[in-house]
C-alpha cells in the first residue's frame, strides 16, 4: 500500500526548531559514533519520537552520504519503509525527526532476549512486512543493498519498517533503466556479511534487485539462529564460501541432529540449545532466497506468496507479533529508559565556552 | 503489432488521456476532494504507463520508434509545460514519474539536435516554474531534480544563470529544511561549475552582483551547512583556472582576506579547513595589492605562529602539509612593498 502523500494535509506539523523537541535518553548511535538517537518528546503534541542528532563537524561524517540517505527517505513513501517527519540544521548538528520505533531493531531483540533466535511466527510476520517494503522499492527500480536485522525497525504496536537507505541505489538514472548494476557501495564493511555473492564478486555480470533477496535469506538465518552466518570467519573466507555456493541454514533439531545428543538429561531439556524444529516452509524459504544463482531467486512479489507466510494471522498479525516478543517490551515512556546524564550536556557547554574564549590569535586588521 | 493490441495504449492515446485527466484535475477546486482523488489516480496511472514506455521494463526494452512518437505527442500537446504547471496537484509517486519522464525526454538526441532542449528553450516559463518549485515543500525535490537535468545542457544552463531567478537560489540554499537546502545547493553548484566557459563568463560579467551582493551572505550564514558548502565551493571556483579573472578580483579585496582570516579561527574544524584553501590563494598571489600585503605584514608573526599549529593532526594529508609549509615560508619572507 503506497501512502498517498500530498493528497491531504498532515494533521500534525513538525517544526524545524529544536525547542519543539525535548530530548531524553540516548537509545542508539549512528554514523560511526558521530550521531546519537534520542528518545524525545514532541512538546506541542506530547508524543514520543526519535531524534537523530548528527554532529556534522565530526571527521567521520560524509555529507554526501547523509544527503543521499535523507533524500532517499524523502522520495520513498511506503508503510514498510521508515519515513522521517522533517530534517533541519541547528548549530553544527543535523536533526532528523523520526517516528519512535519502540521495540528498536530486530537485531536489538536478539540482543535483548532472543540470543538463539526469534520464534518462527514472529520471523514470518517481520519478513513478510520487509518483503512488502522491498517489493515497493524494487518496483521503483531501487535496490536497498543493506537488508539486515539491524535495519528492520519495530514499533510498539508491532508495525515493521525497513530503514538503512544510505546504501540504496536507483537503477533509473540518467534517463535510462539499467538492468544490471556494477556500483560497489563505499564504506560498506559492516554490511558485507549480508551481501550476495554477485555483489561481493564485482564481476562483469553485475547484480540487480535479486541481491536484496539474498540478504533477506541471510537475515532470515540471523533472526532464526540469533547470529549472522559467516560471522565467525575472516572476510576473505566468507567471500570464498559464498562464491563457491555454500548456503547457510537454519539451525534446529533436524538440520543439526547432533545437538539432540549433546548433553541429554543433566539439566533437563530446557537447557539444550536450539531445541526446536523450524517448519519445512521456512527452510525452503531460506533455501530459495539463498540460491547462488540470482536467476533462481524469486522476486519480492512472488516471495510474498510463499507458503512460509501462510502461518501469519492476517487480522491480528501486529498484535500477535507484540505478544510473541514477550518478555521484551517496547519503550513506553521517557521514564522507561535511564535518562541521559547531565554531565554530558555540561561537557558540551564547557567545550563551547572554551572554543569561544581561547582567543590567542586575534588578527590585527 | 502486439504492442498496440489489447490493453496497451498507443503514445497518442496515452498523451491524450494524460492531457484530459490533468486538465480535469487542474479545474477542480479544493472542496471536490473525491473527484480530485479519482482524477489524480488517472493522471498517475497514465504517467506510470508513459514512464514505462520510455524506460522499458525489466523484461521489455524501450522501443525507439514508439518513443519518438511519444516525444512528438508530448511536444505538440505542450505536455511539459502542463506537467510542470500542475505538478503540485499530482500525487507523490506521480510527481517522481514526471521527473523521470522529464529526464528521459531531455536526453533525446536526433543527430546533433536535442529536440527537448530546443522545446524548453522556446518555453522559458518551464524553467521559471521549476525554479519557483523550491518554494513549495511538496514539489521542491522533484523540481530540483528536473533543474539539474536542465543544467546538463549549456543552452538551458545559460538561460538559468542569466535570469533574475538565479539569485533566488541564494535564498533557497539557506532554507531551514535540510533536504531542500541541500538539493538547492546541488543545483546552485551545478549551475556555477558544469559548463566551464559559460560559468567563467557569467562570473566575470556579474562579479559584483554575485560575490558582493549575494555570495557574501552565504559565507556569513548562520546555517552551518550553508556556510561550509558555500566556502568549499568558493575555494573550488577560485582555484579553477577558467575563473582566473574572477579569482584575481576576489583576492584583491582586503575585506575578503579579513573574512577568510576570521574563518580560519572558526570553531568548526571543517570551516577552518575550507577557509585555509581560500586563504592560501591570497598568500600565493605573486602580485599582492598593497592593502592585502599590509594586512599580511601586520599579522606576520601571528600568522606564522597560528599556521604552524594549524591542523597538525592531518599528518597523512601530504598536499595540505606541503601547502601549509609553503604558506609559512611565503609569509616569513614577506617584505613591505618598495615605493616606485
TrEMBL record, chain A:
Any one GO biological process: protein export from nucleus
Coiled-coil region(s): none
GO CC terms in record: serine/threonine protein kinase complex
Domain Protein kinase residues, every copy: 21-309
An MF annotation (GO) of this entry: ATP binding
Gene3D superfamilies assigned: Phosphorylase Kinase, domain 1, Transferase(Phosphotransferase) domain 1
InterPro entries (UniProt xref): Kinase-like_dom_sf, Prot_kinase_dom, STRAD_A/B-like
Homology family: Belongs to the protein kinase superfamily. STE Ser/Thr protein kinase family. STE20 subfamily.
Record-given protein name: Protein kinase domain-containing protein
Organism in which the protein naturally occurs: Capitella teleta (Polychaete worm)
Biological classification of the source: Eukaryota, Metazoa, Spiralia, Lophotrochozoa, Annelida
TrEMBL record, chain B:
Pfam families: Mo25
Signal peptide: none
A single MF term (Gene Ontology): protein serine/threonine kinase activator activity
InterPro entries recorded: ARM-like, ARM-type_fold, Mo25
GO BP: intracellular signal transduction
Similarity remark: Belongs to the Mo25 family.
PANTHER family tied to this protein: CALCIUM-BINDING PROTEIN 39-RELATED, PROTEIN MO25
Name this protein carries in UniProt: Uncharacterized protein
Source species of the chain: Capitella teleta
